[in-house]
Amino acid sequence: MHYPVMTAIAAGILINLQMVLMMITGASRYEHKQGLGGDQPKLLARVRSHGNLAENAAIVLFVLALLEMSGVNRTLIGFAAAAFVIGRLLHPVGLFKTSGTSLPRATGVLATALVGMGGGLALIYIAIGKL
Question: With respect to CATH, is domain 5-129 assigned 1.20.1250.20?
């Protein structure tokens, strides 16, 4: 088993993105004088972008690490990790522009879903092969 280098790079980028989104959300809460909840569209968009990353990053990174440690081609893991990171960057860009649909937000969701589902299916396939 080897160290999951590609996953570690993605994790490093994503934790920094998470901290930036946390600070943006905190600043928006301060701006709107809202500790919890709130109905300000700008604040809701920031909370949602922060929460969406938190909901998806850990499990997708875990999947990528398991795939990388199982010997899946590092270049393939790198592409999947890059697609996920780019998707997670695009999502708040789109959400900060509009609370409605937007191409960056939709692209971010699609990238997240494809990497997550593809990785999950690959894990199942690899695990069944090791039974």
Answer: no
